[in-house]
Request: fold
Amino acid sequence: MAPALLCGTLAHADEPVYEMEAAALASYFTIDIYTVKKGGESAFLTQSLRSGPYDRIATGFGSEKIVEVLPAHREADPTYIVLGRYFDPDMGTSITRYRQSKTDSLASASPTRLQGKLVDVILSDWSWERNHAKGVKKAATTLVRAMPYQDSKVFQEYTASLNFMKIGYVGQTASVEFFDAKTPLDDIRKAITGRPGMSGTAILSLSDGNGYAAYTEYYELPSTLKSAQLSRAGSRVAGVASGVVIENYMAR
Reply:
């Protein structure tokens, strides 16, 4: 009897939904944009992980993803966007400051560092995957909100796909885009959720008052985003960058 009870407990404890639900409660974000010297990609990623919250006990840290941005052309220096998610914005500031001292020497341009607070999370259901299965009748996409402390039933009743929330999952396509402060939130929502293949999006209000940012993942990257580019001038960022998630981890 004892082994049966032990196996049952382990299976329950290993359910990844609990990890996703815990990390999804973090509402503060850091967005660090690095352009790295060619040939320094491996060193940058190594230093970024070693100087960041990866595999550390960091109170206030929720999760972090690193997106490798699609290059504008073959000769372009590689660009990475590091998105940290925190329960405590001061922890985000501390980690960014410490990482800065270890990674800035590898950058070919001054990094851009932003912070923001979550204002909306929208997930899609499984219709895109089902619509791409042979012999399946086309289904309309259902969108579900998943804001922390407001819409927890998405984790309990599986009312939407949780691909966007997965920890440790890499290889998915993603975009990070920026909107002017005058852009209505409803317009941002419509622009993002109207794209085919959207898995989920997190919309942030930037702490410097310069508008909004949105981090979005896709089942398949829309063709309109493949050549899109960011423009940076100091702390101001405009446009959209798309790429592939290459790191994805949470607090230990």
Observations:
- The beta strands are 28-35, 61-69, 79-86, 112-124, 143-145, 173-179, 198-206, 212-218, 230-233, 236-250.
- The chain has two domains: 16-115, 117-243.
- The CA atoms of residues 178 and 213 lie 4 Å apart.
- Confidence is low (pLDDT under 50) at residues 1-14.
